[in-house]
Design goal:
- GO terms for molecular function: zinc ion binding.
- The protein starts with a strand and ends in an 11-residue tail after the last helix.
- The protein is about 55% helix and about 0% strand.
């Protein structure tokens, strides 16, 4: 039986006695057979071109309803709602305090970008239009975006950081039975500690140094620890405490600041270790962040962390190890040049081993060692400030131009 061609949309239900009919597209072309049906108005159409042209309002409203329904099903928690409300309040307050320019119509995001944001997909810089990229870069240069970022308070300045306790094997302490009802599941323990700001300690016991090396550890490890702590504090302050947002970028910043982790250097004195870190801070790559003044703040951070004692240092080193490991995982999905990727992977792996070794060494040191090392760091800061002030700043800027060189000061 020959199939029937209809030009009307009043279709009958197909059955064995009434085979399905084929309908001509009534949207635009009226030439091709219709194969699809608009989910909103039930109009029959033959192709994507006809669908887009049959009713712009129909297609947009259908997409809008889907997005709204999807957002309703997300059901964000109270913390996400609170952060979003704070961002919106700051955004609207900024709009009220600034006059609206005539070119404000050009500042709005494109429909495609808005749809990506509403659907929850990640929006990268490459997704922006040329005009959006210009406005974004202008906002970054003027510091306008920084107003929407809540300032971060370093966790080592939190009074609770002075009460960190670990077990004898260097792992997190088991919670008392009385607190089990208020405790969180083990899988949520890491997240809850991050929300409080203070990083957690290791999950597995730290091995003895005798199992890692057959000889006595180097007496310079205390100096190397100062270098590593400085690079960690630098990175967390640069990333506003959120290294998880760019793990591989954070790990590479650590390697660029640390002489021990990034250059396989062997500084022999606290002054030498701090000098290298300060020179990197004053280098052209990071000079815009604050230069020497920012570096001196980081020296205070190092002294503060050392004053907190071994448990806080172990938590800091474990957090740094997690940062490097996360960077290694991200690197697997990156697509840099093959040789460059292998080089970065090798550096990260070596840095992770060094951090783990230093963490095991810190665990076996007596508590009084850290107060004396912190006093040395404070003394070096005073000497930096007394030794020429702005002259020392100029010297460090000039030395920082020599990339990749570990400067060893003659005694």
């Amino acid at each position: 039986m020959a199939e029937t061609i209809l030009t009307s949309e009043n279709l009958s239900n197909p059955s064995p006695l009434n085979p399905p009919s084929r309908v001509i597209c009534h949207v635009r072309c009226q030439k091709q057979f219709s194969q699809y049906t608009c989910p909103r108005c039930n109009s029959r159409y033959c192709s994507l071109h006809c669908y887009k042209s049959h009713s712009l309002g129909c297609t947009e409203s259908f997409m809008r309803e889907n997005v709204v329904e999807e957002l309703r099903q997300l059901q964000p928690d109270d913390e996400i709602k609170r952060k979003m409300l704070e961002i919106l309040k700051r955004f609207h307050s900024e709009e009220e305090t600034h006059t609206v320019d005539e070119d404000d119509d050009d500042s709005t995001l494109s429909d495609e970008t808005i749809q990506k944001i509403l659907s929850g997909r990640e929006v990268s810089f490459d997704d922006l239009s040329l005009e959006e990229k210009k406005r974004f870069q202008k906002a970054v240069a003027s510091g306008e975006l920084s107003k929407m970022i809540e300032p971060w308070d370093p966790w080592w300045l939190n009074p609770a950081a002075g009460t960190i306790c670990l077990s004898r094997d260097g792992t997190r302490l088991v919670q008392p039975i009385a607190n089990l009802e208020a405790s969180v599941p083990p899988e949520d323990d890491l997240e809850s500690n991050q929300s409080s700001g203070i990083p957690v300690g290791p999950e597995t016991p730290l091995p003895s140094l005798r199992k890692l090396i057959s000889t006595e550890p180097s007496p310079l490890l205390a100096v190397h620890l100062v270098d590593i702590v400085y690079s960690y504090c630098f990175t967390l302050r640069v990333y506003n405490g959120d290294w998880q947002s760019d793990a591989i970028g954070s790990a590479m910043v650590v390697l660029s600041i640390s002489c021990v982790l990034g250059q396989a250097g062997q500084p022999e004195t606290v002054r030498e270790a701090l000098s290298y870190c300060l020179e990197q801070t004053c280098s052209p790559a990071y000079r815009h962040i604050g230069g020497l003044q920012f570096g001196l703040v980081l020296v205070d951070d190092v002294a503060t962390l050392l004053s907190l004692g071994g448990p806080a240092l172990i938590c800091m080193l474990f957090d740094l190890q997690r940062m490097i490991q996360a960077g290694e995982e991200e690197l697997k999905s990156e697509k840099p040049r093959k040789l460059r990727k292998a080089e970065i992977k090798s550096k990260l792996k070596l840095a992770e081993r060094k951090v783990h070794f230093i963490m095991c060494w810190v665990h076996e040191q007596p508590g009084e060692a850290w107060s004396s090392l912190g006093a040395m760091v404070k003394a070096e800061k005073s000497s930096f400030m007394d030794y020429g002030g702005s002259k020392s700043f100029s010297k460090m800027e000039n030395k920082a131009e020599n990339k990749g060189k570990v400067l060893i000061e003659e005694m």
